[in-house]
Design brief:
alpha+beta; 4 helices
Amino acid sequence: MISQTQTNRPYIKPLILLMVVFCSLQTATAAMAVPDLARVIEGIRATYGDLSGLSLQYQREVITRSMTLLGKKARGDLASGHIYFKPPHFLKLKQEKPQPEIIITDGTSLWWYIPPQNKVYQYSAREFGRELHLLTDIFRGMEKVEDNFQVILHGTDEHRNHTMELIPDPPWQEVDRIDLTVTPEYEIREIRIHNLMGTITVFELEGLTEKGEFPEGFFRLDLPEEVELIREGPTQ
């Protein structure tokens, strides 16, 4: 069954933006103005840049402006799962909690499968505008991340993690800034995406593993015939 709709699915964008930020720092050049910043960027590139593929675990929390006033007394919307990436443009996000969901993109189209609802949403890469376009460019070898972000190194925290801030330049319509926490071993441990309405999407990452080969069809979405396909806008 195929139907047409314009259902708004805004929280899928932070998942794509997660990979935009995560992968953009892999190919950043060392030609930065501040030596310490250059060292951190080069360390991240050395950690991720030569991987033929990767997997990692993530936990995502969405914190609204009102929740920040309550501090640790309130927890936001929580989700967790795994991310898989294979150059040049294959990406799979497999959410396991609170319910199973799968997001797959081949660089041209993006599919969002929600098994409990028996539905899959199909998008054109253009639907995600700058986020997915930047991601595709990076996977194809874009190196000058400083052309898209103002990067600020704030220093280190009590655990010797590096704390960084990325400000979109030119400004993005929805995102105000992105905060990164990078371990002394140059693994990206936390990403905090601040939108202009005061909501913060937090990704905690761990378990980085290099993946040399993925099984045949791993980045293909094979669906039962009874699944409803909902095409969001133009899919070509």
